[in-house]
Amino acid sequence: MAQLDTAQKLSILADAAKYDASCSSSGGKRRSSLGGKGVGSTTGGSGICHAYTPDGRCISLLKILLTNSCIFDCHYCINRRSSNVRRARFTAAEVVTLTLDFYRRNYIEGLFLSSGIIHSPDYTMEQITEVARSLREDHHFRGYIHLKTIPDADADLVTRAGLYADRVSINVELPTRSGLHVLAPEKSETRIETAMGFMHSAITDGADARRRYRHAPAFAPAGQSTQMIVGADTASDRDIVSRAAGLYRRFDLRRIYYSAFSPIPDASAVLPPSRPPLMREHRLYQSDWLLRFYAFTPEEVAAATDPTTGMLPLDIDPKLAWALKFRGQFPVDVNTAPKEMLLRIPGLGPRAVQAILQARRWRRLRLEDIGRLTVSLKKLRPFLIADDWHPVALTDRQDLRALVAPPPRQLDLFAG
Questions:
Q1: Does residue 92 or residue 264 have the better pLDDT?
Q2: Do 175 and 247 share a domain, yes or no?
Q3: Which of 308, 325, 342 is the last residue of a domain?
Q4: For the Elp3/MiaA/NifB-like radical SAM core domain, which residue ranges apply (predicted)?
Protein backbone atom coordinates (compact mmCIF):
# COMPACT_ATOMS: atom_id res chain seq x y z
CA MET A 1 0.00 0.00 0.00
CA ALA A 2 1.45 3.37 -1.03
CA GLN A 3 2.37 5.84 1.66
CA LEU A 4 -0.43 8.38 2.08
CA ASP A 5 -0.58 11.48 4.24
CA THR A 6 -3.41 12.03 6.72
CA ALA A 7 -5.45 14.23 4.40
CA GLN A 8 -5.34 11.60 1.63
CA LYS A 9 -6.32 8.83 4.02
CA LEU A 10 -9.15 10.96 5.37
CA SER A 11 -10.45 11.64 1.87
CA ILE A 12 -10.49 7.93 0.97
CA LEU A 13 -11.82 6.55 4.24
CA ALA A 14 -14.46 9.24 4.76
CA ASP A 15 -15.76 8.62 1.24
CA ALA A 16 -15.81 4.86 1.91
CA ALA A 17 -17.88 5.44 5.06
CA LYS A 18 -20.67 7.23 3.19
CA TYR A 19 -22.39 3.91 2.43
CA ASP A 20 -23.21 3.52 6.10
CA ALA A 21 -26.62 5.13 6.60
CA SER A 22 -26.33 5.65 10.35
CA CYS A 23 -25.79 9.36 9.88
CA SER A 24 -26.42 11.60 6.90
CA SER A 25 -23.86 13.81 5.24
CA SER A 26 -23.67 17.53 5.79
CA GLY A 27 -24.86 19.98 3.15
CA GLY A 28 -23.29 23.08 4.62
CA LYS A 29 -22.14 26.06 2.57
CA ARG A 30 -18.40 26.23 1.88
CA ARG A 31 -16.71 28.95 3.90
CA SER A 32 -13.07 29.76 4.60
CA SER A 33 -11.06 32.20 6.70
CA LEU A 34 -7.96 32.09 4.47
CA GLY A 35 -8.43 35.77 3.60
CA GLY A 36 -7.74 36.71 7.19
CA LYS A 37 -11.35 37.49 8.14
CA GLY A 38 -13.18 35.26 10.58
CA VAL A 39 -12.18 32.01 12.28
CA GLY A 40 -12.45 28.45 10.99
CA SER A 41 -13.38 26.82 7.71
CA THR A 42 -15.85 24.36 6.21
CA THR A 43 -13.58 23.46 3.30
CA GLY A 44 -11.67 20.21 3.55
CA GLY A 45 -14.26 18.90 6.01
CA SER A 46 -14.06 15.31 4.80
CA GLY A 47 -15.94 12.91 7.03
CA ILE A 48 -17.95 15.45 9.01
CA CYS A 49 -21.59 14.35 9.11
CA HIS A 50 -24.68 15.24 11.07
CA ALA A 51 -26.56 12.94 13.40
CA TYR A 52 -29.42 13.50 15.84
CA THR A 53 -29.60 12.66 19.53
CA PRO A 54 -32.77 11.21 21.14
CA ASP A 55 -33.74 14.68 22.41
CA GLY A 56 -33.60 16.12 18.89
CA ARG A 57 -30.24 17.91 19.02
CA CYS A 58 -28.17 17.89 15.84
CA ILE A 59 -24.53 16.99 16.43
CA SER A 60 -21.56 16.72 14.07
CA LEU A 61 -19.61 13.46 13.92
CA LEU A 62 -16.34 12.46 12.33
CA LYS A 63 -17.54 9.50 10.23
CA ILE A 64 -14.71 7.33 8.87
CA LEU A 65 -13.51 3.79 8.35
CA LEU A 66 -10.43 2.52 10.09
CA THR A 67 -9.61 0.90 6.75
CA ASN A 68 -11.40 0.11 3.50
CA SER A 69 -9.38 -3.08 3.01
CA CYS A 70 -11.35 -6.25 3.71
CA ILE A 71 -10.81 -10.00 3.69
CA PHE A 72 -14.49 -10.58 2.81
CA ASP A 73 -15.84 -10.47 -0.73
CA CYS A 74 -19.49 -9.41 -0.34
CA HIS A 75 -20.90 -8.76 -3.83
CA TYR A 76 -22.68 -5.51 -2.89
CA CYS A 77 -19.77 -3.85 -1.09
CA ILE A 78 -17.50 -1.29 -2.75
CA ASN A 79 -14.74 -2.30 -0.33
CA ARG A 80 -14.95 -6.05 -1.03
CA ARG A 81 -11.72 -8.02 -1.42
CA SER A 82 -11.97 -8.16 -5.23
CA SER A 83 -12.88 -4.48 -5.67
CA ASN A 84 -10.47 -2.31 -7.62
CA VAL A 85 -10.55 0.71 -5.30
CA ARG A 86 -7.75 2.73 -3.78
CA ARG A 87 -7.02 1.37 -0.31
CA ALA A 88 -6.02 3.23 2.83
CA ARG A 89 -5.67 2.50 6.51
CA PHE A 90 -5.48 4.54 9.68
CA THR A 91 -3.68 3.35 12.78
CA ALA A 92 -5.62 3.56 16.03
CA ALA A 93 -3.34 6.42 17.15
CA GLU A 94 -4.03 8.36 13.95
CA VAL A 95 -7.80 8.13 14.45
CA VAL A 96 -7.42 9.31 18.05
CA THR A 97 -5.27 12.29 17.00
CA LEU A 98 -7.61 13.17 14.14
CA THR A 99 -10.67 13.03 16.39
CA LEU A 100 -9.10 15.23 19.05
CA ASP A 101 -7.83 17.75 16.49
CA PHE A 102 -11.28 18.05 14.90
CA TYR A 103 -12.91 18.29 18.32
CA ARG A 104 -10.57 21.05 19.56
CA ARG A 105 -11.36 23.04 16.41
CA ASN A 106 -15.06 22.67 17.22
CA TYR A 107 -15.69 20.82 13.94
CA ILE A 108 -17.23 17.77 15.60
CA GLU A 109 -18.84 16.56 18.79
CA GLY A 110 -18.13 12.89 18.37
CA LEU A 111 -16.84 9.94 16.35
CA PHE A 112 -18.53 7.31 14.20
CA LEU A 113 -16.03 4.54 13.47
CA SER A 114 -16.44 1.46 11.29
CA SER A 115 -13.99 -0.67 9.36
CA GLY A 116 -13.39 -3.34 6.78
CA ILE A 117 -12.14 -6.64 8.20
CA ILE A 118 -8.33 -6.87 8.17
CA HIS A 119 -6.28 -9.94 9.23
CA SER A 120 -9.18 -11.30 11.32
CA PRO A 121 -12.39 -10.14 13.04
CA ASP A 122 -10.63 -10.19 16.42
CA TYR A 123 -7.71 -8.07 15.21
CA THR A 124 -10.07 -5.53 13.64
CA MET A 125 -12.23 -5.36 16.76
CA GLU A 126 -9.11 -4.83 18.89
CA GLN A 127 -8.10 -1.84 16.76
CA ILE A 128 -11.58 -0.30 16.85
CA THR A 129 -11.81 -0.77 20.62
CA GLU A 130 -8.33 0.66 21.14
CA VAL A 131 -9.43 3.91 19.48
CA ALA A 132 -12.34 4.29 21.91
CA ARG A 133 -10.26 3.19 24.91
CA SER A 134 -7.52 5.70 24.19
CA LEU A 135 -9.99 8.53 23.66
CA ARG A 136 -11.80 7.79 26.92
CA GLU A 137 -8.94 6.78 29.23
CA ASP A 138 -5.82 8.49 27.84
CA HIS A 139 -7.44 11.74 26.73
CA HIS A 140 -10.63 11.83 28.84
CA PHE A 141 -12.74 12.42 25.75
CA ARG A 142 -16.35 13.15 26.72
CA GLY A 143 -17.80 13.36 23.22
CA TYR A 144 -20.17 10.91 21.54
CA ILE A 145 -18.72 7.64 20.19
CA HIS A 146 -20.54 5.19 17.92
CA LEU A 147 -18.68 1.98 17.09
CA LYS A 148 -19.53 -0.61 14.45
CA THR A 149 -18.74 -3.96 16.04
CA ILE A 150 -17.68 -7.13 14.22
CA PRO A 151 -20.14 -10.06 14.52
CA ASP A 152 -17.43 -12.75 14.38
CA ALA A 153 -15.18 -11.09 16.97
CA ASP A 154 -14.64 -12.57 20.42
CA ALA A 155 -17.41 -11.68 22.88
CA ASP A 156 -14.94 -10.15 25.36
CA LEU A 157 -13.69 -7.71 22.73
CA VAL A 158 -17.24 -6.65 21.89
CA THR A 159 -17.97 -6.18 25.60
CA ARG A 160 -14.95 -3.89 25.94
CA ALA A 161 -16.23 -1.80 23.04
CA GLY A 162 -19.56 -1.32 24.82
CA LEU A 163 -17.77 0.06 27.88
CA TYR A 164 -16.32 2.94 25.85
CA ALA A 165 -18.99 3.63 23.21
CA ASP A 166 -22.26 5.49 23.57
CA ARG A 167 -23.85 3.37 20.85
CA VAL A 168 -22.83 0.17 19.12
CA SER A 169 -24.21 -1.39 15.97
CA ILE A 170 -24.00 -4.66 14.09
CA ASN A 171 -25.29 -4.68 10.52
CA VAL A 172 -27.65 -7.48 9.47
CA GLU A 173 -26.69 -6.44 5.91
CA LEU A 174 -29.64 -7.97 4.00
CA PRO A 175 -33.29 -8.60 4.90
CA THR A 176 -33.35 -12.35 4.24
CA ARG A 177 -31.17 -15.36 4.96
CA SER A 178 -31.29 -16.39 1.29
CA GLY A 179 -30.15 -12.93 0.16
CA LEU A 180 -27.22 -13.01 2.59
CA HIS A 181 -26.24 -16.49 1.40
CA VAL A 182 -26.14 -15.38 -2.24
CA LEU A 183 -24.58 -11.93 -1.86
CA ALA A 184 -22.38 -12.37 1.23
CA PRO A 185 -21.66 -16.11 1.51
CA GLU A 186 -18.83 -15.55 4.01
CA LYS A 187 -21.26 -14.00 6.49
CA SER A 188 -23.81 -15.86 8.58
CA GLU A 189 -27.21 -14.66 9.75
CA THR A 190 -26.87 -16.95 12.77
CA ARG A 191 -23.54 -15.40 13.80
CA ILE A 192 -24.84 -11.88 13.23
CA GLU A 193 -27.97 -12.44 15.32
CA THR A 194 -26.01 -14.26 18.03
CA ALA A 195 -23.77 -11.20 18.33
CA MET A 196 -26.80 -8.90 18.46
CA GLY A 197 -28.36 -11.06 21.15
CA PHE A 198 -25.17 -10.99 23.19
CA MET A 199 -25.00 -7.22 22.88
CA HIS A 200 -28.65 -6.88 23.90
CA SER A 201 -28.02 -8.95 27.04
CA ALA A 202 -24.92 -6.92 27.90
CA ILE A 203 -26.80 -3.62 27.47
CA THR A 204 -29.67 -4.90 29.63
CA ASP A 205 -27.28 -6.10 32.34
CA GLY A 206 -25.40 -2.80 32.22
CA ALA A 207 -28.58 -0.78 32.63
CA ASP A 208 -29.66 -2.99 35.54
CA ALA A 209 -26.28 -2.55 37.21
CA ARG A 210 -26.56 1.24 36.85
CA ARG A 211 -29.93 1.17 38.60
CA ARG A 212 -28.56 -0.93 41.45
CA TYR A 213 -25.10 0.60 41.88
CA ARG A 214 -24.45 4.30 41.43
CA HIS A 215 -20.83 3.86 40.30
CA ALA A 216 -21.38 0.96 37.90
CA PRO A 217 -19.88 1.74 34.47
CA ALA A 218 -22.26 2.72 31.69
CA PHE A 219 -22.49 0.16 28.90
CA ALA A 220 -23.53 1.48 25.47
CA PRO A 221 -26.11 3.83 27.07
CA ALA A 222 -27.50 4.83 23.64
CA GLY A 223 -28.22 1.19 22.82
CA GLN A 224 -27.59 -0.66 19.57
CA SER A 225 -28.77 -0.19 16.01
CA THR A 226 -28.46 -2.02 12.71
CA GLN A 227 -28.69 -1.44 8.97
CA MET A 228 -30.04 -3.43 6.04
CA ILE A 229 -29.55 -2.87 2.33
CA VAL A 230 -32.72 -2.47 0.27
CA GLY A 231 -32.97 -3.55 -3.35
CA ALA A 232 -29.82 -5.67 -3.66
CA ASP A 233 -31.79 -8.91 -3.36
CA THR A 234 -35.37 -9.96 -4.13
CA ALA A 235 -36.80 -9.22 -0.68
CA SER A 236 -40.13 -7.37 -0.81
CA ASP A 237 -41.16 -4.53 1.47
CA ARG A 238 -43.42 -7.00 3.28
CA ASP A 239 -40.37 -9.19 3.97
CA ILE A 240 -38.38 -6.20 5.20
CA VAL A 241 -41.13 -4.97 7.53
CA SER A 242 -41.49 -8.46 9.00
CA ARG A 243 -37.74 -8.77 9.56
CA ALA A 244 -37.53 -5.30 11.10
CA ALA A 245 -40.37 -6.04 13.52
CA GLY A 246 -38.63 -9.25 14.60
CA LEU A 247 -35.35 -7.44 15.19
CA TYR A 248 -37.02 -4.75 17.28
CA ARG A 249 -38.86 -7.34 19.34
CA ARG A 250 -35.91 -9.67 19.95
CA PHE A 251 -33.05 -7.21 20.42
CA ASP A 252 -34.75 -3.99 21.59
CA LEU A 253 -32.93 -1.98 18.93
CA ARG A 254 -32.93 1.81 19.10
CA ARG A 255 -33.55 1.93 15.37
CA ILE A 256 -32.99 0.24 12.03
CA TYR A 257 -31.45 2.10 9.11
CA TYR A 258 -32.41 1.31 5.52
CA SER A 259 -29.93 1.93 2.73
CA ALA A 260 -31.02 1.77 -0.91
CA PHE A 261 -28.63 -0.41 -2.90
CA SER A 262 -26.27 1.65 -5.04
CA PRO A 263 -24.60 0.11 -8.12
CA ILE A 264 -20.84 -0.21 -7.73
CA PRO A 265 -17.96 -0.44 -10.24
CA ASP A 266 -17.17 -3.89 -11.65
CA ALA A 267 -20.35 -5.23 -10.10
CA SER A 268 -21.14 -8.95 -9.95
CA ALA A 269 -23.73 -10.36 -12.33
CA VAL A 270 -25.89 -11.43 -9.37
CA LEU A 271 -26.58 -7.78 -8.49
CA PRO A 272 -29.40 -5.76 -10.07
CA PRO A 273 -28.22 -3.40 -12.83
CA SER A 274 -29.84 -0.31 -11.30
CA ARG A 275 -30.66 1.04 -7.87
CA PRO A 276 -34.21 0.89 -6.48
CA PRO A 277 -36.23 4.12 -6.31
CA LEU A 278 -35.07 6.26 -3.40
CA MET A 279 -38.74 6.71 -2.54
CA ARG A 280 -38.81 3.03 -1.62
CA GLU A 281 -36.21 3.68 1.07
CA HIS A 282 -38.30 6.63 2.28
CA ARG A 283 -41.49 4.52 2.47
CA LEU A 284 -39.65 1.90 4.51
CA TYR A 285 -38.54 4.55 6.98
CA GLN A 286 -42.18 5.69 7.24
CA SER A 287 -43.31 2.11 7.85
CA ASP A 288 -40.59 1.84 10.51
CA TRP A 289 -42.07 4.86 12.27
CA LEU A 290 -45.51 3.24 12.18
CA LEU A 291 -44.05 0.31 14.11
CA ARG A 292 -42.10 2.43 16.59
CA PHE A 293 -44.29 5.46 17.26
CA TYR A 294 -47.81 4.76 15.92
CA ALA A 295 -48.53 1.41 17.62
CA PHE A 296 -49.07 -0.37 14.29
CA THR A 297 -48.51 -4.12 14.28
CA PRO A 298 -46.28 -5.70 11.61
CA GLU A 299 -49.39 -7.31 10.13
CA GLU A 300 -51.10 -3.93 9.79
CA VAL A 301 -48.10 -2.40 8.03
CA ALA A 302 -47.82 -5.46 5.78
CA ALA A 303 -51.51 -5.00 4.89
CA ALA A 304 -50.60 -1.68 3.27
CA THR A 305 -48.42 -3.47 0.70
CA ASP A 306 -49.56 -4.74 -2.68
CA PRO A 307 -51.04 -8.25 -2.24
CA THR A 308 -49.20 -9.54 -5.31
CA THR A 309 -45.78 -7.89 -5.15
CA GLY A 310 -45.50 -7.20 -1.42
CA MET A 311 -44.32 -3.66 -2.15
CA LEU A 312 -45.45 -0.46 -0.46
CA PRO A 313 -46.97 2.12 -2.85
CA LEU A 314 -44.55 4.82 -3.86
CA ASP A 315 -47.10 7.59 -4.51
CA ILE A 316 -48.69 7.61 -1.03
CA ASP A 317 -47.36 6.96 2.46
CA PRO A 318 -47.98 3.62 4.21
CA LYS A 319 -50.47 4.98 6.75
CA LEU A 320 -52.64 6.48 4.03
CA ALA A 321 -52.40 3.24 2.07
CA TRP A 322 -53.58 1.32 5.12
CA ALA A 323 -56.45 3.73 5.76
CA LEU A 324 -57.66 3.46 2.16
CA LYS A 325 -57.66 -0.34 2.43
CA PHE A 326 -59.59 -0.34 5.69
CA ARG A 327 -62.17 2.36 5.16
CA GLY A 328 -64.53 0.55 7.52
CA GLN A 329 -62.40 1.83 10.42
CA PHE A 330 -63.20 5.42 9.43
CA PRO A 331 -64.23 8.16 9.96
CA VAL A 332 -62.87 8.43 13.52
CA ASP A 333 -64.47 10.85 16.00
CA VAL A 334 -61.63 12.98 17.36
CA ASN A 335 -63.70 13.87 20.41
CA THR A 336 -64.22 10.29 21.62
CA ALA A 337 -61.80 7.92 19.86
CA PRO A 338 -59.00 6.24 21.84
CA LYS A 339 -55.38 7.16 21.22
CA GLU A 340 -54.61 4.10 19.07
CA MET A 341 -57.35 5.03 16.58
CA LEU A 342 -56.37 8.69 16.47
CA LEU A 343 -52.83 7.57 15.53
CA ARG A 344 -54.29 5.77 12.53
CA ILE A 345 -55.79 8.91 11.00
CA PRO A 346 -53.66 9.91 7.98
CA GLY A 347 -51.94 13.23 8.57
CA LEU A 348 -51.96 13.11 12.38
CA GLY A 349 -48.67 12.49 14.18
CA PRO A 350 -48.04 11.55 17.83
CA ARG A 351 -47.69 15.18 18.95
CA ALA A 352 -50.93 16.20 17.27
CA VAL A 353 -52.72 13.21 18.82
CA GLN A 354 -51.38 14.09 22.27
CA ALA A 355 -52.59 17.67 21.82
CA ILE A 356 -56.05 16.41 20.83
CA LEU A 357 -56.24 14.18 23.90
CA GLN A 358 -55.36 17.10 26.15
CA ALA A 359 -57.58 19.70 24.47
CA ARG A 360 -60.74 17.56 24.36
CA ARG A 361 -60.73 17.28 28.14
CA TRP A 362 -61.90 20.88 28.22
CA ARG A 363 -64.07 21.28 25.13
CA ARG A 364 -65.30 19.59 21.99
CA LEU A 365 -63.01 20.04 19.01
CA ARG A 366 -64.02 21.50 15.67
CA LEU A 367 -62.39 20.95 12.29
CA GLU A 368 -60.52 24.24 12.50
CA ASP A 369 -59.02 23.14 15.82
CA ILE A 370 -57.60 20.04 14.15
CA GLY A 371 -56.34 22.21 11.28
CA ARG A 372 -54.08 24.08 13.68
CA LEU A 373 -52.28 20.82 14.51
CA THR A 374 -51.39 19.73 10.99
CA VAL A 375 -49.91 21.11 7.79
CA SER A 376 -52.97 20.44 5.64
CA LEU A 377 -56.53 19.28 6.28
CA LYS A 378 -56.91 17.79 2.80
CA LYS A 379 -55.67 14.34 3.82
CA LEU A 380 -57.57 14.33 7.12
CA ARG A 381 -61.08 15.38 6.06
CA PRO A 382 -62.35 12.00 4.83
CA PHE A 383 -61.05 10.13 7.88
CA LEU A 384 -62.27 12.09 10.90
CA ILE A 385 -65.39 13.42 12.58
CA ALA A 386 -65.28 16.71 14.46
CA ASP A 387 -67.98 18.69 16.24
CA ASP A 388 -68.86 20.48 12.99
CA TRP A 389 -67.68 17.89 10.44
CA HIS A 390 -69.31 14.57 9.39
CA PRO A 391 -67.82 13.37 6.05
CA VAL A 392 -70.16 10.44 5.40
CA ALA A 393 -70.39 10.77 1.61
CA LEU A 394 -66.75 11.84 1.24
CA THR A 395 -65.36 8.75 2.98
CA ASP A 396 -67.31 6.42 0.65
CA ARG A 397 -66.24 8.02 -2.64
CA GLN A 398 -64.73 5.67 -5.22
CA ASP A 399 -62.11 8.27 -6.19
CA LEU A 400 -61.00 8.94 -2.62
CA ARG A 401 -57.39 7.94 -3.31
CA ALA A 402 -57.12 10.52 -6.08
CA LEU A 403 -58.53 13.18 -3.74
CA VAL A 404 -56.08 12.60 -0.89
CA ALA A 405 -52.92 11.48 -2.73
CA PRO A 406 -50.23 14.11 -3.37
CA PRO A 407 -50.50 15.63 -6.85
CA PRO A 408 -48.05 14.29 -9.46
CA ARG A 409 -44.84 16.30 -9.71
CA GLN A 410 -43.08 17.16 -12.95
CA LEU A 411 -39.61 15.62 -13.00
CA ASP A 412 -36.57 17.74 -13.75
CA LEU A 413 -35.08 16.81 -17.11
CA PHE A 414 -31.58 17.60 -15.87
CA ALA A 415 -31.89 16.10 -12.38
CA GLY A 416 -29.08 13.79 -11.35
A1: 92
A2: yes
A3: 325
A4: 60-287
